[in-house]
Amino acid sequence: MTKLTLTPRQRLYQIIFGTSTRFGQWFDIALIIAIISSEIILIISSVASIESQYPHLLVIAEWSFTILFTIEYILRLYCSPRPLAYMRSFYGVIDLMAILPAYIAFLIPGSNYLLIIRLIRVLRIFRVLKLARFLKDSNILLRSLRHAQRKIVVFFSSVLILVTVFGSLMFIIEGPANGFTSIPKSIYWAIVTITTVGYGDIVPHTVMGKALASLTMLLGYSILAVPTGIITAELNQEMKTHRGLIRCPNCATSGHEMDAEYCKKCGTQLPETL
Amino acid sequence: MTKLTLTPRQRLYQIIFGTSTRFGQWFDIALIIAIISSEIILIISSVASIESQYPHLLVIAEWSFTILFTIEYILRLYCSPRPLAYMRSFYGVIDLMAILPAYIAFLIPGSNYLLIIRLIRVLRIFRVLKLARFLKDSNILLRSLRHAQRKIVVFFSSVLILVTVFGSLMFIIEGPANGFTSIPKSIYWAIVTITTVGYGDIVPHTVMGKALASLTMLLGYSILAVPTGIITAELNQEMKTHRGLIRCPNCATSGHEMDAEYCKKCGTQLPETL
Amino acid sequence: MTKLTLTPRQRLYQIIFGTSTRFGQWFDIALIIAIISSEIILIISSVASIESQYPHLLVIAEWSFTILFTIEYILRLYCSPRPLAYMRSFYGVIDLMAILPAYIAFLIPGSNYLLIIRLIRVLRIFRVLKLARFLKDSNILLRSLRHAQRKIVVFFSSVLILVTVFGSLMFIIEGPANGFTSIPKSIYWAIVTITTVGYGDIVPHTVMGKALASLTMLLGYSILAVPTGIITAELNQEMKTHRGLIRCPNCATSGHEMDAEYCKKCGTQLPETL
Amino acid sequence: MTKLTLTPRQRLYQIIFGTSTRFGQWFDIALIIAIISSEIILIISSVASIESQYPHLLVIAEWSFTILFTIEYILRLYCSPRPLAYMRSFYGVIDLMAILPAYIAFLIPGSNYLLIIRLIRVLRIFRVLKLARFLKDSNILLRSLRHAQRKIVVFFSSVLILVTVFGSLMFIIEGPANGFTSIPKSIYWAIVTITTVGYGDIVPHTVMGKALASLTMLLGYSILAVPTGIITAELNQEMKTHRGLIRCPNCATSGHEMDAEYCKKCGTQLPETL
């Protein structure tokens, strides 16, 4: 009954923005499939050999998706009760960024520039970030990270200072003759080393340089333990709290054990999440 | 007495499928030794210099094991009370996959094709996975991983999105001139970097590229902490629960401390596992 | 009223050394901006192409900062109630080291030497370490590390012994022909491998060498878990204790849960830190 | 008084084997200094350029230490109440292995062989392992590792199976043309990749190979979390238990908090270790 009182615009809003109705869920699933498909086509079209084989097919497929997403964006603006607020929101900006590069490439002539701009279109990938809407289970992870925020900032500041100091020392020791041509490049080496990535494109050649590199590695090795410790400790606590806060739907008892599946008072099955 | 009432087929079932009788245990141990031996021969025969020295010996050894495993497979089908259910089970399929490649290579003539098919035979390695049957202590690990399942999915989705975004950005910045010939290849680079493997086969050359690579590394560095945190927190909880669930064999008291070796009520030694 | 009784020297002390007054805070913020700016100029001037373009500009900028920091150092000595104690303190030494290399380069003539000494000036980066004064939240991290101190020493001694043993074994197995020209170089390889950095500049070529390298890697892999375990366990405990020590500002109740935001007795909001 | 009743042999035993007397402690410290000095000389003499400069000096230094350690070994045999038990003990064998290679090189003539045997002398490094005697604080770490033993075995078996499977698959996909010349070499690649070392000496070249390598890396990435989780959980528990077991030296109260420094009952300072 209440359903019939909705205007077509309100219904459209329910389908496009909401996930409570069946059509709203279908729309979102279809959207995600469309986003991933357009991404796959974009990735495939970046492979030179494939693009030269099916040039028209890929262009048509890309434009179909661009037009589809444009219609979707217009409909969002139309049915939203506050279109300006939507446009300025995080998802509004991403929705626009997912279609704009295609039109910029279309409007401005000049084949060479078009090629470069087409590559910028890969930023449409940010559209995929919409997926985050579906990941409700990521809450525990995010809350742990938010709690650990300040400790992570302290940690990263220390890492940046260390990397600058070690990079500069390496620049003095090894010098441009051994590939350490400037301090920024030496800092790049220090980051590659301290994160244990170790490309091997810049490598110490002198004995002193190797000794300093060894120190950097052993330091990076032990430093790696700090963020892990921070996040584990937070996550540990978050998981305990999270479970403890769940109330039994029958008798409202809270403070259950982390692995509890049934209420300890009345045996009713507990809900998975808050 | 009850033992004598078993038919030969039932006895065979007890030996081949069971591990409760002495012969059943011996059979399984012999089987594992045979599997590992056949794997070692397969691995050795892949070394070109050794194969050219003892070509006949290795072929004979391989075929002996293939025939042995074939007989074993037929016996399993014969003695199983429900042969079709066995064939369709996980181990049934693996048991068949462990012998089939050898016969496919035998039936179809043509030396070149045979060579390729012989390599597919290395899939027989999956046979070794049977070892898992003996690892009862892996339960705690597996249960922790199962509990952390959803968090790990959330985490891996985030990693995949990040890797696609960073790979595409790198493709725009560095381009085919610096080895980033396509987006899939750039995503491969991003995975190599974010997992801190760092082969060094594809490496940024421009200043902007190096800056983005540094960001990717530092991100990968801190991201590495998340799965560790998840698994540690789950394992921590799992170990507490696991020990707490053990009941004293004498007075049936449960809820012991994780490191308890004796019952806190009556002093009876507690069993190691549930 | 009390404010007017301060001599100009005492006021200067309050501004330069203190952070309690508004001017004191502004001075410290301005100082940090100046330090980071001078560091950026130093890093930029190490890039050969940029330096050749703006040689005078960079020299002038560097000297401006050097003179600024010299005036600051003199003012610190002037207004400090105990100038000698300041000079001998950790920050006093760093403050002097941040200006001295510039003057040493100035006093001694000879262009070649000047170039080398200019590089030593990058040690001025240590000046940035003053940032640590602002990071009060780093206390939990530092206390955890201090508690874990002895375990970390034990761990690092084991790593050093392992690295020496594996490096020496690799020197015997691979030898100078395969790039392992001396034991120190082989130890360098072992550190590169056990920390999972893996530059790939020195790599085993023989079968035996590869087997030993595989063992080293798997060992390094599992060893990596030990410092993480140590720091996580300490941090876990430290965070529990830290929160438990906070007293309610209203009723002075302590022993709150780690995630408590309000006093469990009177509901007053708890302070963030001790 | 009791001291005077000791025979010279018993006194020697107290000095060489014991650490309770002042001379016993001095002897052990001197021994460690001698071991490290002989190791440094050995490491230095492996550097070709240094050895050619001071050939006699290094030979003399090496022989001095060898003779010193030989005298020490003879004295140990002489003063030990049960010389045969000492000889067969772990330290007895290491003590012999630390001097034997030098004499073997001396007795058998032939310069080429001598060179090889001299290298085997680096095994004398194991002598340094005696240091472990001084590291009593390593007990917590060792006990944690012993408790986690079975889980680590399960984990390493899984890693070995994974590495064999992925190595073989890579051998089929990439083949000898792309550097994966045999299954053992491919397994070596899989270990280099899964441990995130990533030398880059063997690297996938085909698209399929890169896809499989990406999978291997992401797997290795998440697998890395498991041993950390195991050791952290054990260490966490071990530290709690360890502290809880300490008894107050005044009132014998146990069950103190992990970070307790004073007895919660009577305020007496608690001992550091059990």
Write the layout of secondary structure elements.
4 copies of one chain form a homotetramer.
Chain A: H1 8-16, H2 22-45, H3 48-53, H4 55-79, H5 83-88, H6 90-97, H7 100-107, H8 111-120, H9 138-147, H10 149-174, H11 183-194, H12 207-223, H13 225-245
Any idea what the CATH architecture of the largest domain in chain A is? Answer: Up-down Bundle
Q: How helical, in percent, are the residues of chain A?
A: 55-70%
Task: Give the termini separation of chain A.
Answer: 31 Å
State the secondary-structure class of chain A. mainly alpha
Which band does the percent of strand residues of chain A land in?
under 5%
The coarse silhouette of chain A is flat
Q: Name the CATH superfamily classification of the largest domain in chain A.
A: Voltage-gated potassium channels. Chain C
- Most extensive interface, chain pair and sizes: A-B, 50 and 50 residues
Mean pLDDT of chain A: 73
Number of strand elements of chain A: 0
Q: So how many helices of chain A?
A: 13
Q: Please tell me how large the radius of gyration of chain A is.
A: 27 Å
Largest sheet of chain A: none
CATH C-level of the largest domain in chain A: Mainly Alpha
Helix and strand sequence of chain A: HHHHHHHHHHHHH
Question: What would your notes on this structure say?
Answer:
The structure is a homotetramer of 274-residue chains. The first copy, chain A, is an all-alpha fold. Chain A folds into two domains: 8-130, Voltage-gated potassium channels. Chain C (Four Helix Bundle (Hemerythrin (Met), subunit A)); 142-245, Helix Hairpins. Helices cover 66% and strands 0% of the residues of chain A. The first copy, chain A, has 13 helices and no strands. Chain A has helices at residues 8-16, 22-45, 48-53, 55-79, 83-88, 90-97, 100-107, 111-120, 138-147, 149-174, 183-194, 207-223, 225-245. The radius of gyration of chain A is 27 Å and the shape is flat. Residues 109-136 of chain A have low confidence and may be disordered. Chains in contact: A-B, A-C, A-D, B-C, B-D, C-D.
